[in-house]
Amino acid sequence: MAKEGIPVVLALLLLSIILIIGARLTEGIVLPILTVITWLLLLFAIYFFRDPNRKIPDEANAIISPADGKVIVIDEVFENDFFKAKVRKVSIFMSVYSVHVNRIPIDGNVVHFDYKKGKFYPAYKDEAAFQNEQTTIGIENENIKILFKQIAGIMARRIVCNVREGMKVTKGERFGMIKFGSRVDLFLPLHVQLKIELHQKVTAGETIIGLY
Predict the structure, then answer these.
(1) Catalytic site residue 182?
(2) For 33-80, how does the pLDDT look when each residue is reduced to its tens digit (9 = 90+)?
(3) CATH fold of the domain at 62-211
(4) Per the residue annotation, which of 16, 91, 98, 182 is the catalytic one?
(5) Where do the structural domains in the chain lie, given as residue ranges?
(6) Pairing of β 201-202 and β 101-103
(7) pLDDT tens digits, one per residue of 38-51
């Protein structure tokens, strides 16, 4: 389980125990109904905050997926802040049923970090990429630099990001999560050879997005 989910699971477990005790000591159907609802929420929280181990690809020049989900955008765009050039954008939509732990796409150093407050449009809409709450992370090594964004969605109102500028990171390393449905955008140099297709499902830490 992701460590971010432990307080949620413990709180729901404690509430469930209290409601079970209350239901045994009192009459009526209100507390039993609340107990069932709380147990369902507890089971969902355990499922949502799952954090399975992943087999990281051995290819040194591989860019791996930072998120579980479905590829909803592959496009060429002009990136103004980090590359200041035309790049290839790959957007991954994470549904509420996806594993939400995010992973580092390449080995390197974090050379750019930015956090922006914003709105909460549905993560699959184009407006989300520009106006939603998001963190932006740039990583560089001796061969390549890439940029990626954690973008909050209509339900995801908490971005967890444990990396900052100046840190050294490793491909496949866990670095954060976005709670309850969201999106991750990758910005890659045009010379990267993509290994994914539009609408393909990808797995954080395992699926190779491209080779450089």
Answers:
(1) yes
(2) 999 999 999 998 898 888 999 999 999 899 999 999 999 999 999 999
(3) Glucose Permease (Domain IIA) (2.70.70)
(4) 182
(5) 3-48, 62-211
(6) unpaired
(7) 999 999 889 888 89
Report the alpha-carbon distance of residue 141 to residue 187 in Å, rounded.
15
Instruction: Identify residue 122 by its one-letter amino acid code.
Output: P
133 within 8 A of 74, measured Cβ to Cβ: no
Q: What is the pTM (predicted TM-score) of this model?
A: 0.82
SS3 65: coil
Tokens 């890439």 belong to which residue? 146
Report whether 119 contacts 132 (CB < 8 A): yes
Long-range contacts for 129-137 (Cβ within 8 Å, ≥24 apart)?
129/91, 129/183, 129/185, 133/157, 133/159, 134/159, 135/159, 135/161, 135/176, 136/81, 136/82, 136/112, 137/110, 137/112, 137/113, 137/161, 137/163, 137/175
